[in-house]
Amino acid sequence: MKVTFPHMGNAWIVIQTLFESLNVEVVVPPFNSKRTLNLGTKLSPESACLPLKLNLGNYIEAANEGADTIVITGGIGPCRFGYYGEVERQILIDSGYNYEVVTLEPPDGSLLGLAKRIRFLAGTKNSWAKILMAMRFAYLKSVALDRVEDLIHAARPRLSNPALTEKLYEKAKEQLVQAMTEKRVKDTVAWVQESIRERQEGLNTESVKPLRIGIIGEIYTILDPFSSVGIEEELGRLGVEVDRSIYLSGWVGNHIFRGLAPGYRSIKSYPKHAKPFLPHFVGGHGIETVGAAVKFAREGYDGIIQVFPLSCMPEIVAASVLPKVQDAYKIPIMTLIVDEHTGHAGIQTRLEAYVDMLERARLLQESIQTREGVLSVGG
Amino acid sequence: MLGDDKYFLGVDVGSVSTNIVLLGQDNTVKESLYLRTQGRPMQIIQEGIRLLRSKIGKSAEIIGVGTTGSARQLAATLLGADVIKNEITAHAVAASRVNPQVQTILEIGGQDSKIIILRDGVVSDFAMNTVCAAGTGSFLDQQASRLGIKIEEFGHLALEAKNPVRIAGRCSVFAESDMIHKQQLGHSLPDILAGLCQAMVRNYLNNVGKNKEIRGPIFFQGGVAANPGICKAFEEELGQSIIVPENYNVMGALGAAYLAQEKVGLRQDIRTQFRGLNLGDTQFQAKSFDCKGCANRCEVVEIAQDGKSLARWGDRCGKWSVVGVPSPGTRGEETKEEQRGA
């Protein structure tokens, strides 16, 4: 058995770790690329959302490397992702791929059923104690990965050479892939902190107050830089510090460990924040999107950007509620919809204009008495 | 001939038109050019500069350059720009300089449409069409040529309508079949055109203008503002009057010129990067190649003037962006060479 799984940003590092510590052979599909998208689009219904198309592309690329079993998480409620495991299984059969698909969810609510599936993946050689240990370690790594990612969010607008910052990020990820002890994982985070501190020396970072933008929206697109056309990196380059509503470990903690582990940036408080605007579940992460918008607004962020794949129902519901949040907290919220187009120019224009708008609003606030000239007007 | 004076140059290179504005130091527009981009931005920019030179004479001096539009980076490289700004900021700056009270800007261009909300002279919100280009200038162009009328006549004919027909405006493909259906039933041309104007305005307000508080004064700018049929449809739908500013079709370029003035004009210590009016006579080459350095497979573009590399972009890591790195040919990269230029 060779297990593979769909890509979603950095999730591969965690999933690979989990299977490797259980001595299960795992195939990491090639990273999402235009080729992945082309392969997936050929097999997908036209109206399916972007994640399905990328998932299928991942499986085909992984099949070329010998994978024969797919692991995907399931879901409940009115988001299509919940049945993608099954849809993908049938599409793959129709297209002549001989894949076993294991959906990690309690079938018809049966925890025993879920345990059976995990047992199938882990084989007979692993004891339950070992499986739980492996899951715990993978979870710790996932939290560390999220911490590194957030450190990079803060470093991008503050450090001078953007290429060096990206290199640091890549190197940290490489180290986390290799790390198989808790100490190595911790050391990597400390090393990233230290490297940033070193590079900050000599820079007058006190005077730099980057704009802060919260990224909210559909989990797959905000976690996967290929899908979001790299908006976090782009905003960093424009001098913005970004934060995100959902991090991988925060989602895993809530979704898979049922809230037993909080993860990085726990998503638990979002429904409470969303309540005055959206008091009930609408599927996917619609309620988290609205709740996170409220939370970012309350924390004094300068702006909020919502990202979702075309035709994503829960996010469309959220998008229609967000103007109320915008009015209530006087914070500009922009919505970006991503789909198969990989062109960068459109997104770039919108991001630049948005950042310009926030910068000028701030400039105006700072110099309200000396308002003359174009730079203080016109957004 | 405009005589001996100093000017700011604003250039807006969009999908359909390339606009050039020459702004005098007294804040008046001395010259404005509206050229069709025709898919060849490099040549059209050069052509525009040649045209400009023939109009303003040898003694004129350009003391600041701003570029905007979807090809703003390309234009900036060719011209040597002091400011490179997105279209939204440029349009907002131009409008608020023309009338500081403006609260809403409706802008419909060739391939995109946007709405900009200003409060107290500052942009407070904006939106652009996202995954669909229905209801932009290109579609009107297309329909005009299908009906065999000039785009300039479109709006005036629409104003003659007595009983505009209802046309589905959500999708331009469906709008077209709806129009053909109505035409085959025998409805008059003005009624169909007026119906199309209304459908376009409905579509714009439902998509781009969704959730935006549209307060007056309202400016309508971009190429489509030349169409009185659309203006009328906007006024009917909004119940407010619409102002089409004098330089409505070159507002982006005007904004870029104002931004250049702001950055360079008021300061003694900054000199313009402008490469000179004779750049219309030199040779520009564009070359693109796929970088094979990593899995991103970035498509890198290189612009050269008379064989000398000016700029590269398209790479995510910044490996090629630094001019001075040896050209890709020497690294064994595949190149797709394309010769352009005058």
From TrEMBL, chain A:
It holds the Pfam family DUF2229. Keywords: Kinase, Transferase. InterPro entries: CoA_activase_DUF2229 (IPR018709), Dehydratase_Activator_Redct (IPR051805). Residues 14-70 form the DUF2229 domain. The keyword Transferase applies. GO terms for molecular function: kinase activity. This is Predicted nucleotide-binding protein, sugar kinase/HSP70/actin superfamily. It comes from Desulfosporosinus hippei DSM 8344. The lineage of its organism: Bacteria, Bacillati, Bacillota, Clostridia, Eubacteriales.
From TrEMBL, chain B:
Residues 9-260 form the ATPase BadF/BadG/BcrA/BcrD type domain. Gene3D superfamilies: 3.30.420.40. This is CoA-substrate-specific enzyme activase, putative. CDD domains: ASKHA_NBD_O66634-like_rpt2. The keyword Oxidoreductase does not apply. GO terms for molecular function: iron-sulfur cluster binding; metal ion binding. Keywords: Iron, Iron-sulfur, Metal-binding. PANTHER family: ACTIVATOR OF 2-HYDROXYACYL-COA-HYDRATASE (PTHR32329:SF7), BIFUNCTIONAL PROTEIN [INCLUDES 2-HYDROXYACYL-COA DEHYDRATASE (N-TER) AND ITS ACTIVATOR DOMAIN (C_TERM)-RELATED (PTHR32329). SUPFAM superfamilies: Actin-like ATPase domain (SSF53067). Pfam families: BcrAD_BadFG. Transmembrane segments: none annotated. It comes from Desulfosporosinus hippei DSM 8344. Its cofactor is [4Fe-4S] cluster.
